[in-house]
Each structure stands twice: as structure tokens, then as C-alpha cells.
Task: structure prediction
Amino acid sequence: MDTRIKIFDTTLRDGEQSPGASMNVEEKITLAKQLARLGVDIIEAGFAISSPGDFEAIKRIGAEVEGPVICSLARARKEDIDRAWEALKDAPRRRIHTFHSTSDIHLKHQYRISREEALKRSVEAVKLARSYVDDVEFSPMDATRTEIPYLCEVVEAVIEAGATTVNIPDTVGYAMPDEFGDLIRVVREKVKNIDKAIISVHCHNDLGLAVANALAAIRNGAGQVECTINGIGERAGNCSMEELVMALRTRKAYFNADTAVRTEEITRSSRLVTKITGIPVQPNKAIVGANAFAHESGIHQDGLLKERSTYEIMTPESVGLMKTNLVMGKHSGRHAFRDRLKQIGYELSDEDLNKAFDRFKRLADQKKEVFDEDLEAIVSDEMQQIQEVYVLNHLRAESGTGVTPTATVELVVDGKQVKQTGQGDGPVDAVYRTIAAMTKTQSKLDAYLVKGITGGTDALGEVTVKVEEGGKKVTGHGADTDIIVASAKAYVNALNKLEYWKKGRPKNS
Ligand code: KIV
Ligand code: ZN
Result:
């Protein structure tokens, strides 16, 4: 019988710590629902004390997302643990994850406390968390640079205090696979009460070894892996969920282990994370990169045509990468539209469905063939339910040889209609300068990315922008068959997000 490895997804917590990856509450809920469809066991929904936005996201995910255990991170402090409990108390399945550093480097330079004090704080934190919930995880932060006998002492003490999962983090991505596997074996052998807890691992990717380290840990008895979709996270990121899951699935006999992940949901989950965070996946990334299943060489293509297994160790279908389906056209009705959305994983409220259907009809008029990817772009635009301070009403841009690029933009700003004309170095620049003047934004455009969603010159263009103001970075998206309009939509979307952060959401920790 295969050992069932639990997948603890921390895309919403450690993943959100990627530079520029902040998500608003609605985006977090959308992603949490997709994680539930994907079949992860635990969702670390945030760090409750770090901001009101994280608190609200944890609370709402706990109430609205069925299936996985919902978890909040908390430092080993009373106020953190109380706040985590406040956020989680209505969730039917809940976990508090508390942590304290244990390496001498951290204790001496950052905390300035003794090992004894760190141990005492860890035990007290676990006891307090256990007074609220039955499911408590403890992480000795920087475990891989902690002296092993002391690490074992802490792990034993927190299990004694009631921890049900003990997580061994490679916080700085320092470990080597054999060494990390050995560490897990030693913890398993030396900690007397280890059978009362699940051993988890949390590997960072600073040396590109996060997945290899997590797999080595599984070979040595780890029962839970912490990971993120697309491997996003602090610095070089975390263990990539899709790589770990597919390594176990593809080499099940080697590992004698598997997960409950519905791998067919991987591609959709990866695309959703890219869309929400604006962090693209490199084309050659394993499992979810654009080239992961593309065979270029003639010899490989010849082999594949004869027998797929010659050059394919897993099928694109197994990760939900289907050949683009022609799904709908201008004669398709609302019912068929709703059904198709359901099949590709989106259930919209009546109001959102009406808006999305209107956009679909306009798109179908412009574009003969509407593909699943187009529908996803439309729907995820409708799902960005942040309060809109700015609404793009109308846009006209002129450019060409011998013409000064000029844009006339009509916006609704706080309910009032405004119109302005401006010029720039190109049509997008003219639009952006005009919108910036109209909204009086102090923000700076950090990145501008444009992508054709499906092939052909009538394809929907999708624009992603990153905008920064006062240290806060946000991502905006817009999709349209007209790339200038898509650019304007993306910019306005980003400015709305900045307004949201300015009004409602203090800076994350
Ligand atoms: O990297 C780390 O050590 C963490 C802990 C909070 C588990 O993210
Ligand atoms: Zn981490």
C-alpha cells in the first residue's frame, strides 16, 4: 500500500511572500476554491495577525471553502495565536501553525535569546494553540542550520505539549538532498514520541533543490510536504507542488507513496496563480511550462507518433493540459455558456455570469472561435471583485507613421464622468499618461507584459501590469481583442487595486 503524503499548500501564505505577489481577499478565495478542487489536504490561508486583509481572507476561506483543513500561521506569541484562533474559529476543519527559530544564528543575532528560552516559548505556544484547536503544527524555523540534538529536543518537547504535526523547514534553502533525508531519518529515530505526530517538510529553493529535498524527506519518513503552486514564494521560492506531486505519481513504485491531488487540475491551478499574481512561469518549467510537453526534435516527434511512451513519461492530459477545444461561437446561449464554465471549473453568481456572458457575446462578434482560454480570461476578469474607484468607459487611440500617438480616455472616477486627451511615445504610453493624469496617481509602472491567449491575429490579448506606489506593488490584468484596450483595462485594474490597498489593507508583514 502506498503511503499517502499530505499536501499542505502555502501559496496563499509563503507564496504571497514572493515579491509583487500580493493578492486581495477575493483573489485568495478564488484561489482557495481552486486548491480545494485540486485536492490539497491543508490550505495555509495566511498569517492572521499580519494584516486585516489576511485575517479576513482566513476567516472567509474557512467559511466558504469546503474540503481541506484551513490553517493560519502564528509566531510563538500569545497575541498571534489568539488572532489565528479568532480567524479560524468558524472553520469546520482548522489548524494553527506556530513557529519559532531554533538555529543559533537566528537565536543569537535576531532573537537574542538562549536555546532554553526558545524551547520554553515553543512549548507554551503549542500548549496555547492546543487549548483552541486539536490540530496544531509547530515549525522550528531554520531547522537545517540547527544543532541536531537540540532540534530533536525541541521536536520532542512540542509533541509532548500537543503538536500533531512537526514541520522541519529548510528556511534558507541550504540543505542537500542526502543530508536532508538523513536529518528526517534522525528525527524519526531519535525523537521518542515521534509516532504521535506527522513529520512535515518545508523546503525553500535557493539552490534549486527544494523538490529534491522534499522527495528525499519522503523516502525517509516525512508524511506531509509544504509547497506552492508554480513554486512561488520568498526569494527563489518554495517546493513546487506540481513537480512534487507528479514525481510521486510518475514514480509511485519507487517512492511507495502518492498524494490525493487530482492532477488534471494542475494546469488550471498554475494558470490561475499566474493570472492572480502576475508572475509568469518560465517556458521550460517542469510540468506547467509552455514547453513542458512540446517535442521539437524530429527524432522525438517520430518516436512519439509511433508510440507516445517513447519520449513521454506522463501525458499532458494527466496534468489537465488538453488540446485547445473549440467551445463556443456567437450563437451559443447563456445556458451553454454557464455549462461550459462549470466544466472548466468556474461557478459564477448570476450577476457575474450576466456580465461575463455580455463580454462573451461581444467577443464572439469580434472573433469567430472562442476557446476555453478565452473564457478563462473573461471570467477571471469578472472575478476580480475589488471595489472599482475607476471605470474605463471609452477609449480612442491614434498612432501610425508620422502621427503623434494620441489617446482620448473617458473614465468614471468615483461616480463622475471625466474625459481627457493626451499624447505619448506610442499608443499605450499615450493611454497610460492620460489615465495617470486623470487619476492623479503617484504610482510607477514597473512591468508591462502582453500575451496572446490563443493563436491568430483575432486572438484575445492579455495584458499584465505591475504598478508600485509607496512600496506597495500590485498587479493588474486586462483582456481584449484590441491590445490597446486590454492595456488600458490592465492599468485601470491595477490602479483600483492600489486604491483598495490604500483604503482597506495595511501593508503585509
Ligand atoms: O521558511 C520557513 O521557515 C517558514 C516557516 C514559517 C515554516 O516559512
Ligand atoms: Zn517558508
In short: Residues 14, 99, 139, 141, 167, 169, 171, 202, 204 surround 3-methyl-2-oxobutanoic acid (ligand 1) (CB under 6 Å). The chain has four domains: 3-277, 293-321, 334-384, 390-502.
